[in-house]
Design a protein that fits this description.
Strand order of the largest sheet of chain A: 8-9-10-15-14-13-11-12
Distance between the termini of chain B: 30 Å
Radius of gyration of chain B: 23 Å
Distance between the termini of chain A: 43 Å
Number of helices of chain B: 8
Helix content of chain A: 25-40%
Number of strands of chain B: 10
Strand content of chain A: 15-25%
Oligomer: heterodimer
Structural class of chain B: alpha/beta
C-alpha cells in the first residue's frame, strides 16, 4: 500500500502520541458512587487524580486512536499496489482487421509477456496507444521503469490523423513487434448471375473485372439470393451482391449517388430503399442507396441503384468506379500497405523504450480514491461512538 | 422473592435453636421463658409463711398436717416473650448485600422466636412504615419473608418513630446499619432496658464498608446525596480508622445501655450470625 500524501500519516501519529500523553496526564474527576459510610471519609480539598486508567478510559483511548488512524489514512489517500519490479511492459495486442492471423498475434504476445505485464487489446492503433499509455502510467507504483510493446502489423490504414499525436505523448520508445498484415482482398473477380444483355456486364468488362464461376464476388442481377449463396459468402469470406436488375421504382428522382470514393451525378429514378444494414452508398439527399451486412467471414450487399439499358451511362468512367466500390471488399476499400519509413520512425520513437516511472504523472487510483470517503466516514462514526460513551461514562 | 428457596436452608439450619431471654418475662401466658410471676407450677422454688390475704389454695396442706404451721409453696412460672423485630429499610441498607443480610437475620430471628411459641411482630422503617402485628400462629415465618419481599430500602427513614410498637414487646431486636438516628435510638433503647425489656441490636455492616474499593472515588451518602467525600489512597486509612472507632464506640454505648450488640458483616453466613445473636 502506498500513500499519495504520506505526511498525513506522520501528523496522525503525532496526534495519537498527544492523545495518549493527555490520557496519562489528565487529572480526571473520579466516578461518583454511593457509599453509606461516606461520612467517615476525611474531608479533603484535593482533587482526586485518576492516575490509574480505568477500563472506560482505555476504551475511549482506543476509540480516539482508531478515529485518528482512520482519518490519517483517509487523508493520506492510500492506494493498493503489488510488489515493485524493475521493468514492467505494457503490451498492445492489435485486434484490427489489418491482422492476417489473430492467433499469430496472440502467440507473439504470449512469448513476450512476463508475469504482471498488462495486455491492452484494441481494434484501432490510436485507441490502443491511448489505453497502453494509461496502463503504463498506472504502473508507476509497481515498477521502476515501464515500456510499451506494440504487437501490430502497422498497416497504413491503421494510422489515422491522431495516431502520431497520441504517440508523441509517450516520452519513451515503443517496441514494435511486427506481425503479418492481412492480404489485400481487392480481388474483384466476379461471378455474375444476370441476363446476357445486362448492361452491367459491359461495365464490368470495361472496368477490367474478370468474370468467372469461382470468384470472390457473386453478383446477382436476376432472381433472389439463395441460402446456398449466403452459405458461400459466410464460409468463404466472399461478397454477395444483390443488385436487382428491375428494382421497383418509387416515382422519385434524385440527381446523384455517392460512395466512399465516387460521386456519380445522374438523374436516377430512385427505387425502393434497400434493406437495413450499414450504408455504403447514398443518394444526393442522404437517403441510403446501398447497404452492407456482415455474413460470417464475408458480407452481403443490397444495391438499389437502377441500371439504365439506354444511353451511355454504363460506359462512363465514373460508373466503373462506382461498380468497383460496390463490389469491393467488405468494410470498404483497404490500404494494407506498409507505412513509409518516416511514419515508422515516428511511431517507434527513441531507441530507449524504458521510461522511468518517476517521470510519469501518477494515475488516479480508483480503488484508493473510493476508499477515502469511507475511511473518513468510519472515523466520524467512531467519534460519534466516543462521544456517546463519554456521555455515558459521565453519568 | 419466594421464602422457600431463599430461606429454606437458613430455617433448616436454625431448627432446634432457642433464644433464651436475658431478663425475666412479665408475661402471663404460659411459655418457655422464666417469668417474674410466681405460681403453682411443678417447678418448686421455696416455702413462704402464710400471710393474711394469701390464697388458701396455695397452702401446703401436707406440711401443715406434719408441722402445724401454715406455709405457701412458691414455684417459678414460665411465660411467652412477645418479640418485636425492627428492620431498617433506609437507602443506606441498599448498599452491597446489607438488605439481603438484614432480611435473613429478621427471618432467622423470627423463626427462632416462633419456635418457642413467642408472638412475633415485624416493623420496617421507611417513608411509609409497615408492620406485621404480633402473632404466634403457624405461618408467621412465611408471612415475615413475604412481608420483607415487598420492601425496597429507600429514603432516609428513621427507626425512632417505630418506638410506639414497643409497647407490648418484652424483647426487641433491631436490625440496622445505625447510619440513621442512632443516638435517639440508643436513648430509647436505654429507656426500654430500664423498664425490663430485652433489647438486641444487630448491626449490619457491608464488607465493602470495611474494605473500601481501591482507586479514587467520589463517594456520597445515599441518604444525604449532598454529603460528598473523596475516597482516595490518601483518605482510605483515615476512613478505616474513623469507621472502626465509630463502630467500637457504638458497641460500647449499646452494651453499656444493657442491650445486646452484635455486628454482622454481609459475608457472614446468616445461620451462624443468628446463632451468635440468640446465643447471646
Amino acid at each position: 500500500m502506498t500513500f499519495a500524501a504520506p505526511w498525513f500519516l506522520a501528523a496522525g501519529a503525532a496526534a495519537a502520541v498527544a492523545v495518549v500523553a493527555l490520557h496519562f496526564l489528565a487529572r480526571q474527576e473520579p466516578r461518583r458512587r454511593p457509599f453509606p459510610t461516606a461520612r467517615f471519609v476525611p474531608e479533603t480539598e484535593e482533587r482526586a487524580p485518576a492516575r490509574s486508567v480505568t477500563l472506560s478510559d482505555r476504551l475511549l483511548l482506543l476509540l480516539r486512536l482508531t478515529a485518528i488512524a482512520l482519518a490519517a489514512i483517509g487523508f493520506a489517500r492510500p492506494s493498493l499496489s503489488i510488489a515493485r519490479r524493475g521493468l514492467a511492459r505494457v503490451i498492445f495486442q492489435d485486434t484490427s482487421r489489418a491482422v492476417r492471423d489473430p492467433m499469430e498475434v496472440a502467440r507473439s504476445v504470449a512469448a513476450i509477456r512476463q508475469d504482471g505485464d498488462p495486455i491492452v487489446r484494441a481494434g484501432s492503433l490510436s485507441t490502443g496507444l491511448i489505453r497502453a499509455i494509461e496502463a503504463a502510467r498506472a504502473l508507476r507504483d509497481e515498477a521502476d521503469s515501464v515500456s510499451i510493446v506494440a504487437v501490430s502489423p502497422l498497416a497504413r490504414e491503421e494510422i489515422d490523423a491522431a495516431t502520431l499525436a497520441i504517440r508523441s505523448t509517450w516520452p519513451g520508445g515503443i517496441v514494435w513487434t511486427p506481425v503479418a498484415r492481412a492480404i489485400d482482398p481487392m480481388d474483384l473477380t466476379t461471378e455474375v448471375r444476370a441476363a446476357a444483355a445486362d448492361p452491367l456486364r459491359a461495365t464490368l468488362a470495361l472496368a477490367g473485372i474478370t468474370l468467372r464461376a469461382s470468384a470472390s464476388v457473386r453478383l446477382i442481377r436476376d432472381g433472389l439470393p439463395t441460402a446456398a449463396d449466403s452459405a458461400w459468402a459466410r464460409a468463404g469470406g466472399h461478397r454477395l451482391v444483390d443488385w436487382p436488375s428491375a428494382p421497383s421504382g418509387t416515382g422519385d428522382t434524385t440527381g446523384a449517388v455517392v460512395t466512399a470514393n465516387t460521386v456519380l451525378v445522374v438523374a436516377f429514378d430512385r427505387p425502393a430503399r434497400p434493406n437495413v444494414g450499414t450504408p455504403v452508398a447514398w443518394w444526393a439527399d442522404g437517403e441510403v442507396a446501398a447497404t452492407e451486412q456482415p455474413l460470417g467471414a464475408g458480407c452481403a450487399r443490397t444495391v438499389a441503384v437502377p441500371v439504365p439499358s439506354a444511353g451511355d451511362l454504363m460506359l462512363r468512367e465514373r460508373i466503373r468506379s462506382l461498380v468497383r466500390d460496390l463490389l469491393g471488399p467488405c468494410g470498404g476499400r483497404r490500404d494494407l500497405a506498409a507505412p513509409d519509413s518516416a511514419t515508422v520512425r515516428a511511431f517507434v520513437g527513441p531507441v530507449s523504450a524504458a521510461v522511468p516511472t518517476e517521470s510519469l504523472a501518477p494515475a488516479e487510483d480508483e480503488a484508493g480514491r473510493a476508499a477515502v470517503p469511507w475511511l473518513l466516514a468510519m472515523a466520524l462514526g467512531v467519534l460519534v461512538v466516543e462521544q456517546l460513551l463519554r456521555r455515558r461514562s459521565a453519568r | 422473592m419466594p421464602a422457600g428457596p431463599l430461606y429454606g436452608a437458613l430455617l433448616d439450619a436454625l431448627r432446634g435453636v432457642s433464644w433464651p431471654t436475658r431478663v425475666a418475662s412479665r408475661g402471663a401466658s404460659a411459655g418457655t421463658h422464666p417469668s417474674r410471676l410466681r405460681g403453682n407450677s411443678a417447678e418448686f422454688t421455696e416455702y413462704r409463711a402464710y400471710r393474711q390475704g394469701d390464697d388458701p389454695r396455695r397452702l401446703d396442706w401436707k406440711l401443715l398436717a406434719r408441722t402445724d404451721r401454715a406455709y405457701l409453696r412458691i414455684t417459678d412460672e414460665r411465660a411467652t416473650l412477645p418479640t418485636l423485630i425492627l428492620a431498617d429499610a433506609s437507602a443506606s441498607m441498599r448498599f452491597g448485600a446489607k438488605w439481603e443480610q438484614a432480611c435473613a437475620m429478621v427471618v432467622g430471628l423470627a423463626a427462632v422466636a416462633h419456635a418457642a411459641a413467642d408472638p412475633v411482630a415485624v416493623s420496617v422503617s421507611g417513608p411509609s412504615p409497615r408492620r406485621l402485628p404480633f402473632r404466634a400462629r403457624r405461618g408467621v415465618v412465611g408471612d415475615t419473608a413475604r412481608f420483607l419481599d415487598g420492601v425496597t430500602p429507600t429514603g432516609a427513614a428513621d427507626l425512632a418513630p417505630l418506638v410506639r410498637d414497643w409497647g407490648r414487646a418484652a424483647r426487641v431486636a433491631i436490625v440496622t446499619d445505625l447510619l440513621g438516628d442512632e443516638p435517639l435510638l440508643l436513648r430509647l433503647a436505654r429507656e426500654r432496658v430500664a423498664r425490663g425489656a430485652d433489647v438486641v441490636l444487630v448491626h449490619i455492616v457491608a464488607r465493602e464498608e470495611l474494605e473500601p474499593p481501591a482507586g479514587a472515588h467520589l463517594t456520597f451518602d445515599p441518604e444525604r446525596p449532598a454529603l460528598e467525600r473523596r475516597l482516595t489512597d490518601r483518605t482510605r486509612d483515615g476512613y478505616r480508622a474513623s469507621f472502626d472507632a465509630w463502630r467500637a464506640a457504638v458497641a460500647r454505648g449499646w452494651r453499656a445501655a444493657g442491650a445486646g450488640y452484635f455486628e454482622v458483616v454481609t459475608d457472614e453466613p446468616p445461620d451462624r450470625a443468628v446463632r451468635r445473636v440468640v446465643g447471646g
